[in-house]
């Protein structure tokens, strides 16, 4: 039963009434803890997009969590920007006119989309990668969502995922109102990570777990851990592995099972460390390194589960890192390799640089790209990433290029991109794969034969969305680059 | 309105000038000085003159224990601090000392309460060194936003009215939302003698329109300040503290 205050709130919020500079158009629905109204701004020509006003249910009958959730969202949403969150417009004070007004995001709710699950693999990948991009964008802004689920995701017409409802969220640089309210702090039962159940609020990898649960649901139509109603029933995810997706839907490819189960690892260290890495693997299935996870056909053995359960009893080894720190320690590095000119003097310093960069970051992903002029572009002029004959030659050269660096296979991927405009192709590829750093060779001072290098390097440097590391061949090459034992032996 | 809060300047004119310039560059509308203008450092007169000028232009200023020690013998000080107080007593003019005498203990304005140590027993200068000490302060101040100095560190305690408070360590330069339906006790840091192993001067900006607090740290020539302290014949330990923010 709603309290008096709620009834009053509702009465004053009839269509046409004005609140804090906004006019109510109609009531959308009552969410779990708030009323939602479609509103328009009065005398605000700068706002040219539809608006939604969220009014928290306040009153004696309402659980405290709805108020703290409202406060939390009102603190965090104004600090967020970009296409993956609704644009914040205004908020009212909790005492006088509590409301949170933001962009009404158009598109399809992931909840409705998920109702049709199991979805075809291509669609799962599309949605999963879009969602991973959104999560990554959030983590880059130092925020953990903590309540990722289909209800809280809208897919815009262009395929972009938008995250809603920051009532459980945590901002690394803001006071955490929920930290003292641990009994409320866990998200929604089917998606919540094991460490959240233990009260953790500061690990961005909790979102990776929920992301895995959502992708699992899209691929199989089932929830990985069901929908438990008690805390004890939820806690089985501290040690239990879910039924492998392929045991539910045989069409799920092994690489997708690999990605999903890696997201759902009970131990955060065993998961993907950033959502950008998840998005990357979803978009490049041929680059996913398959482990026994990919072929598992049933839950882990009793002995394994018992071992995990036993370990989960111990103090959890929590190496918590702020979202941005984790993101910056898990960079996606892209190196552009000119496989059309294998004898180029730039290869040695470029390899040396990549080795240096890789040694600085434990959790890097290295994308080795060769942008080649295509022999024959397809009709659309697009980029082909298939294994044609030309592709194969360059792919082998790429592999030979990276092999001497002895980097772990699961951290490296190889891509041959055919295009008429290598610079634009490199830039597009970097952006769509959340690359943090592009490494490429500089044009030499007097270069005519390799003129395209000049244009590629300068165009990439000028237009990249991220940092660019331009590697130059020194006028006096290092002795170790001259040796046949290139690259130089690793230091101990 | 944006108000810059500066405390524990401790006769460090270089740090004060750096913070004032930084605050002006951030378009603050007003200043509040939360005590301990003198003590420790070599330039108490210059600092007090600067405060007098700002108060004449509408700034808020409250009294700290070092300010009181200039004209009162009832304030306890350790030896090196006492040496610096003796030095300041000699250096300060009668007018400057009179200004310190006339400072209020505590000022309330709008949603804010300004005090040197704590609103609870302000005249005893207790340290807010625990959530319960912060809660006592918030209960007496009775305002959503309470600003204190005295502990020489930037910290923020928060809680629902009447409930126990939680400690939050702010990241410099980030505008932290501080909605007024909660209680916030901000320890704004020290301009002239930071003690968190970071020699940068500390102050805080409160934006009363947006309800945010930004904890700022400002670089200045702290070696020059340390040199001035040695030149004035003040204890080496004070100069060392300035150099190391310790």
> What's the shape of chain B?
globular
List the secondary-structure elements of chain B in sequence, H or E. EHEHEHHHEEHEEEEEEEHH
Largest sheet of chain A, if any? 6 strands, antiparallel
Classify the helix fraction of chain A into a percent range: 25-40%
Kindly report the average pLDDT value of chain B. Answer: 96
Rounded Rg of chain A: 25 Å
Biggest pleated-sheet summary of chain B:
6 strands, mixed
Low-confidence stretches of chain A: 1-5, 377-385, 482-492
The percentage of residues in β strands of chain B lies in 15-25%
Oligomer: heterodimer
Assign an overall shape of chain A. globular
The level 1 CATH classification of chain B is Alpha Beta
Q: Widest sheet of chain B: strand order?
A: 3-2-1-11-12-9
Strand content of chain A: 15-25%
Helix count of chain B equals 8
Identify low-pLDDT runs of chain B. Answer: none
Q: What fraction, in percent, of the residue positions of chain B are helical?
A: 25-40%
Any idea how many domains of chain B?
Answer: 1
Q: Say how many strands of chain B there are.
A: 12
CATH topology of chain B: Purple Acid Phosphatase, chain A, domain 2
């Amino acid at each position: 039963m709603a309290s008096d205050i709620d009834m009053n709130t509702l009465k004053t919020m009839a269509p046409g009434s004005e609140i804090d500079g906004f006019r109510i158009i109609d009531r959308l629905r009552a969410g779990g803890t708030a009323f939602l109204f479609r509103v328009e701004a009065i005398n605000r020509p700068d706002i040219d997009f539809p608006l939604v006003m969220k009014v928290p249910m306040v009153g004696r009958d309402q659980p405290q969590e709805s108020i703290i959730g409202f406060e939390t969202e009102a603190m965090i949403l104004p600090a967020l920007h970009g296409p993956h969150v609704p644009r914040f417009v205004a908020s009212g004070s909790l005492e006088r006119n509590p409301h949170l007004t933001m962009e009404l995001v158009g598109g399809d709710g992931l909840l409705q989309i998920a109702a049709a699950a199991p979805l075809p693999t291509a669609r799962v990948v599309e949605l999963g990668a879009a969602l991973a991009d959104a999560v990554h964008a959030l983590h880059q802004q130092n925020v953990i969502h903590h309540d990722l689920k289909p209800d809280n995701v809208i897919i815009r017409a262009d395929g972009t995922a938008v995250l809603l409802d920051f009532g459980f969220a945590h901002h690394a640089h803001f006071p955490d109102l929920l930290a003292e309210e641990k009994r409320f702090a866990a998200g929604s039962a089917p998606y919540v990570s094991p460490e959240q159940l233990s009260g953790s609020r500061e690990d961005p990898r909790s979102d990776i777990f929920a992301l895995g649960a959502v992708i699992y649901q899209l691929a199989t139509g089932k929830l990985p851990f069901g929908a438990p109603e008690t805390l004890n029933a939820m806690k089985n995810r501290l040690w239990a592995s879910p039924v492998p997706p392929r045991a539910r839907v045989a069409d799920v490819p092994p690489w997708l099972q690999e990605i999903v189960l890696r997201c759902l690892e009970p131990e955060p260290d065993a998961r993907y460390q950033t959502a950008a890495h998840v998005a990357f693997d979803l978009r490049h299935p041929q680059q996913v390194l398959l482990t026994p996870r990919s072929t598992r056909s049933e839950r882990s053995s009793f002995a394994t589960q018992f071992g995990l359960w036993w370990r989960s009893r111990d103090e959890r080894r929590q190496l918590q890192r702020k979202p941005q720190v984790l993101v910056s320690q898990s960079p996606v590095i892209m190196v552009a390799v000119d496989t059309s000119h294998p004898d180029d003097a730039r290869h040695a310093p470029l390899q040396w640089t990549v080795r240096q960069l890789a040694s600085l970051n434990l959790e890097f992903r290295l994308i080795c790209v060769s942008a080649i002029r295509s022999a024959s572009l397809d009709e659309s002029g697009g980029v082909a990433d298939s294994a044609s004959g030309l592709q194969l030659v360059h792919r082998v050269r790429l592999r030979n290029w990276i092999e001497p660096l002895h980097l772990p296979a699961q951290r490296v991927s190889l891509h041959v991109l055919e295009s008429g405009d290598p610079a634009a192709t490199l830039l597009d590829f970097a952006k769509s794969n959340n690359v943090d750093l592009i490494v490429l060779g500089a044009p030499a001072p007097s270069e005519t034969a390799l003129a395209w290098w000049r244009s590629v390097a300068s165009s990439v440097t000028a237009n990249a969305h991220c940092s660019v590391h331009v590697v130059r061949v020194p006028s006096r090459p290092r002795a170790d680059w001259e040796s046949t034992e290139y690259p130089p032996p690793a230091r101990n | 309105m944006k108000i810059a809060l500066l405390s524990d300047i401790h006769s460090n004119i270089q740090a004060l000038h750096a913070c004032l310039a930084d605050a002006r560059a951030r378009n603050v509308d007003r200043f509040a000085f939360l005590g301990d203008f003198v003590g420790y450092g070599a330039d108490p007169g210059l600092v007090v003159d600067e405060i007098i000028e700002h108060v004449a232009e509408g700034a808020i200023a409250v009294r700290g224990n070092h300010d009181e020690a200039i004209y009162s013998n009832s304030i306890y000080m350790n030896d090196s601090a006492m040496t610096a107080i003796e030095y300041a007593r000699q250096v300060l003019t009668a007018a400057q000392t009179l200004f310190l005498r006339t400072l209020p203990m505590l000022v309330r304005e709008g949603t804010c309460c300004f005090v040197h140590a704590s609103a609870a027993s302000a005249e005893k200068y207790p340290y807010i060194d625990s959530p319960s000490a912060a809660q006592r302060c918030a209960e007496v101040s009775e305002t959503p936003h309470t600003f204190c100095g005295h502990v020489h560190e930037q910290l923020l305690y928060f809680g629902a009215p009447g409930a126990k408070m939680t400690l939050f360590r702010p990241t410099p330069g980030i505008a932290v939302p501080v909605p007024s339906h909660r209680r916030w006790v901000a320890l704004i840091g020290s301009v002239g003698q930071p003690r968190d192993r970071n020699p940068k001067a500390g102050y805080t900006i409160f934006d009363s329109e947006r309800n945010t607090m930004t904890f700022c740290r400002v670089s200045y020539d702290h070696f020059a300040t340390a040199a001035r302290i040695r030149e004035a014949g003040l204890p080496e330990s004070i100069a060392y503290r300035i150099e190391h923010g310790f």
